[in-house]
Structure formats: C-alpha cells, structure tokens
Amino acid sequence: MQVFLHIVGNNIVPIFILIAFGYMLSRYFPLDIFTLSKLNFYIFVPIFVFVNLYSTTIEFELIQAVLFTLLLLSANMLVGSLLARVRGYDLALKNAFKNSIMFYNSGNIGVPLITLVFSSSPYIVDGQTPYLFVAVATQVMVLVVQNVTTNTIGFFNAGRAQMDWRESIAKIFRMPTVYAIPVALVLKALPIEIANSPIWPALQFVRQGLIPLALITLGVQLSRTTFDFGDKEVFLAVFTRLIGGPILAIILLMTFRLDGILAQTLMISSAVPTSVNSALIAVEYRNRPDFASQAVMLSTLLSALTLTGVISAARIIFPI
After folding, report:
1. Of 54, 167, 196, 275, which is most buried by a Cβ count within 10 Å?
2. pLDDT for 290-313, tens place per residue?
3. What are the domain boundaries of the chain?
C-alpha cells in the first residue's frame, strides 16, 4: 500500500497536474500543437538524449541492459504486429498501436519509480542503499535506448501511414536526435570536458525542461481529442503495455539468465505506461493522435495499480 500511495502521489498526480495545465491553457488560448511538438523534437529531446548519454558511465552490466531493452522492444513490436493483423487494423492504426506498446515512460515515471523502490525496504542494508546506484544506472540506459528508438523507429512507424519507407527513413535523418547520439559518444571518447564549459548549464536547463513541456503539449492535444471510452483497441493497447510488457520481460530475463538487481530493475521498468512522446509523434505525423493520446492517459492511470503487483513479482522471481 505504501508503494501504491507513493506512486500515485509522487508520479501519477504530478503528471496529470502538468497535463491539466496544458489542457486549460489550450481552452483559453489558440496554441499551435505543431509548434509545441517541434520544440520537443528539435530542441528538448535531442539535448535530453545528449546530456544523459554523455554523463553516463557505461559498464558491462549496463551494456546488458541496453541489449535487453532492444530485445524487449523487438518482442513488443512483434506482438503489436500480430495483434494488429488479427484485429484487422489499417496501416495508420497498426503503427499507432505498435508505438503505444513499444515505447514506454522510462523517464518521468521510470527513473523516480526505480529510485523509490531501491531506496526503500527491503533494499536498505545497515541504513545504506547499496543497490540504488546499479538500479538507477540501469534505468538511465533503458531511458536512453527508449528515447533514441522512439525518435527513430517511432517516427518511421508513424510516417509509414503517410509516406513510403524511403520518405520515412529520410524524415528520420532530419531529426537532430539521430546526430545527438554519435556526437555524445565521440565527445565522451575525446579528452574534452564540456561539463566545465559555459554551454553545459544551458544544456542542463533544456534537459530539465523536457518533461514539463512534453506533458503540457500532451494536455494541449487532449483538449482537442474526442474521447471514446468504449474503444476496445485502446484498452487492448493498454493491457498489452502494462501486463504483456512485464510478461515478455520475464521470458527474456530467464532466457538470458539475468538475475538480481539488474533483472528486477528491467522487469519493473518494462511495466511503466505508454510514452508521452508516442502521442506527440502521432500528433506530428497526424497518425491517429486521438488513439495515441488516450492510450497514454489510460495506461498512466492504470499503471498505479499494475506497477505495485509487478514490483512484488520482481522481488519474488529474481531474488537478490
């Protein structure tokens, strides 16, 4: 119950407060949703990815986390494709559906959630939190992979409904996030410490602004969304994200014999709700934005219930 109340009070409620700000602001002022989405994808997201990747020390255990996250992404893509075929979706809905399953909120829910879990009982030993660093570092790698793939594969999926695969790929290479990754890796390898330069505080400011801007943008989109609470496809997407995600994670973790804190972190991370960016991508490409926005909202609400069960299951299945 303590974990449930903490998730609701410290993760879910703040998210919906920021969404409500965007929703109410859009009711009073004619905000341009496409301008807001471009601010996200051309400034805030690439800088967010760059800063996280540049400032994270990548060790072998974290490489395992990267490979696992990519495998889980592929498994979710396969499940999404199979369900879309069975349900007979058109191309636009199929790709919006896959994005809602593949990409999850590893940042503004995943990171604080992992921090909470591994800094509380039963992970406190002699007043210390010895597992916290590994858990948070693992989640940061999940966050980087999710941000990179959301802004590449996610864009490709959304663009396929409006253009052929060549145009979709060309669109990806016009996104600055693609170039933020190699630049961060090259700078990490060079004897240059940009963290001591005047540009670093500016980058940090932008990084910290991504989450509120993304949530406010989602609120603006929701103010223009026609809600259909009887849409079975939204409920199917949410069920597959919140329940199917951790089931796939368990299978992969057991297959590759990962255990302990690494396995617990990856399993818990796999159960967080649909990424806000998946809805913003749907807006940017006009690819079923109502469906994508509703999937984000509903999965975020229900995750307060499902996450508590996943956290308990992770402790039992992958003991320390």
Report:
1. 275
2. 898 889 888 888 888 888 889 889
3. 2-317
